[in-house]
Design a protein that fits this description.
Largest sheet: 8 strands, antiparallel
Number of domains: 2
Number of strands: 27
Helix content: 10-25%
Length: 543
């Protein structure tokens, strides 16, 4: 039997050449957000797509990209000046994996129809989709631009643990700051790679600065800009560190609707993105910079212990007084391609196109160390497709008596969460029931068997197609830092479409720490788009 790759190679060789160019014109255009005020945001970004709809062109939303101005800064929050013992490094603050960590939730309204409702932790959902749906070539090309580089411990240095498994526990987690083992560019290869897009040494004698000649020239070409206060006294309210950069996010990574919808004329629509730094912290404090140490000792800002710091990381297009630098753009913008089809292609487009996409529901539950549990995820949801869970250690004191939710790593600048799970956060004897029907014949242990059965099949076409399968996780990465639990719960009969069912998840916490397990339920939604008018309607799911 021929493999999928054989068939693809054959079809590629025998397919006829296209008789004509399908589109006679393709132009990229952009719109600015409608919520910023000279670079300042009130916690929300909104794009009104009416400008694009007025161009009477076809739009491929899957290619659309959102650019956000990001400002990272450390300020003296005290009432008096502070004398530095050591200055910040140019990479003192590093974004966590994925530029979408700066986004908390997204709402999309098209033609008056809410096609995506506000749900928190959209950043976690975007991370999981990237882990399971991106291919390696996309990862290499798009990853660093979107600040998406997989967190991974690496140090082939004598006298240092050769992998994360053998790292001293006290070097990763403690009662003072929680998880902190990878908050640096020395042992975290991902943070180091991401810092290359946010840290530019703007001093004489450095190659890029000398060639471009000035901060103004750097600003014009959208290179990152960094200010580091020199050693000496820093006044109250003045900055120790300021960095400006751009975050680039594909719209399809934030909204499954725009990933699945057809090329069509646009209609008036709006996209609301809520920034919620109170829910998640999007940056890491770089405790040991690879730029300044070869042995892993602490580097960067050193100040008296009584100093109060204000550390911010948000979508912000304003300059900080005293830094001498400014953002390359003060507004957010949406870049999107518009197409002008030739007559034959225009006629060939189906007037009405129906497609399916996923909506998401999120919640959480807790479980103590070694404890068995049975949790009803929901009593009433129709057309559920996938269950995704993210286990997180929320008490740094080991033992079965420790209660969960004492700390919140999502808000920590020392933890890689929410871009990862907690390391080795293992569960065992897992079973999921949908409408009282178990998913597996026997409870699954959270190990290689579950990785093979579920996680490795979470890519395109369930990972079965040799040509289109995608995903970035190896067994080692999954077992260490990306232990998401992904379960396919979407198999059903046509007669069951629209039927509400309960979903129950049971198992045992196989760790010595209390866990909080965040779960995301993806459910199918059907939308129909009029490709000529751009109007949208939603209908019942049918197999």
């Amino acid at each position: 039997m021929s493999t999928a790759s054989d068939i693809s190679a054959f079809e590629h060789s025998v397919e006829p050449a296209p008789a004509e160019t399908l589109f006679h014109d393709k132009k990229w255009t952009y719109i600015q957000d409608s919520t910023s005020n000279t670079g300042q945001y009130a916690g929300q970004i909104q794009f009104n797509l009416s400008t694009i709809s007025s161009q009477a062109a076809f739009v491929n939303w899957e290619e659309a990209v959102i650019q956000l101005p990001i400002k990272l800064q450390i300020l003296n929050a005290g009432e008096s000046s502070v004398t530095l013992t050591a200055a910040c490094t140019i990479d003192q603050l590093v974004p966590k994996t994925g530029a979408w960590q700066f986004i908390g939730s997204v709402q999309v309204v098209v033609d008056g129809v809410t096609v995506q409702t506000n749900q928190v932790h959209e950043n976690v959902n975007a991370t999981f989709k990237a882990l399971t749906e991106w291919d390696y070539s996309s990862y290499v090309k798009r990853g660093p631009t979107s600040s998406f580089v997989l967190d991974e411990y690496r140090l082939p240095i004598p006298g240092v643990a050769q992998n994360l498994d053998n790292m001293a526990t006290s070097n990763y987690i403690n009662g003072t700051v929680g998880e902190w083992g990878l908050f640096n560019t020395f042992s975290n290869v991902s943070a180091y790679e991401r810092s290359l897009f946010t840290a530019l040494d703007q001093s004489s004698g450095k190659l890029a600065y000398d060639i471009m000649g000035s901060n103004a020239s750097i600003q014009v070409v959208s290179k990152p800009q960094v200010y580091v206060a020199p050693s000496g006294a820093v006044a109250a309210g003045a900055p120790f560190y300021v960095a400006h950069c751009l975050a680039c996010i594909k719209l399809s990574d934030l909204s499954d609707y725009f990933k699945k919808c057809t090329v069509a004329a646009t209609n008036i629509a709006s996209i609301n993105s809520n920034m919620s730094s109170g829910i998640t912290c999007p940056i890491l404090w770089n405790g040991s910079s690879a730029n300044t140490t070869s042995t892993g000792e602490s580097t960067g800002l050193a100040i008296p212990g009584s100093t109060n710091l204000l550390v911010t990381a948000d979508v912000n297009g304003t300059a900080t007084s005293g830094s001498g630098i400014a953002p390359s753009q003060t507004f957010s913008r949406l870049l999107v391609p518009t197409y002008s089809p030739n007559p034959s292609a225009d006629n060939a487009l189906i007037p009405k196109k129906t497609f399916r996409y996923f909506e998401r529901v999120i919640n959480k539950f807790t479980v103590q160390a070694g404890q068995s549990f049975s949790w009803t995820v929901t009593n009433n949801i129709a057309n559920s497709k996938k269950l995704i869970m993210q286990p997180v250690i929320t008490n740094v004191t080991p033992g079965s008596s420790s209660l969960p939710d004492v700390i919140n790593p999502f808000r920590s600048c020392f933890s890689t969460i929410p871009a990862t799970t907690s390391p080795y956060a293992a569960l065992k004897n897992i079973q999921v029931t949908v409408g009282n029907v178990p998913i597996w014949n026997n409870p699954a242990n959270f190990g290689y068997d579950l990785f093979v059965q579920e996680m490795s099949k979470s890519g395109v076409d369930g990972g079965l197609d040799d040509v289109t399968k995608a995903g970035l996780l190896s067994q080692r990465l999954w077992e260490s830092l990306y232990r998401f639990i992904a379960v396919d719960i979407g198999r059903r009969l046509p007669s069951e479409d629209g039927a509400s069912k309960s979903i129950t998840f049971s198992g045992t916490n196989s760790t010595n720490y209390a866990l909080t397990i965040y779960f995301h339920i993806l459910r199918e939604v059907v939308a129909t788009v009029d490709t000529a008018m751009g109007t949208v309607s939603q209908g019942a799911v049918q197999n």
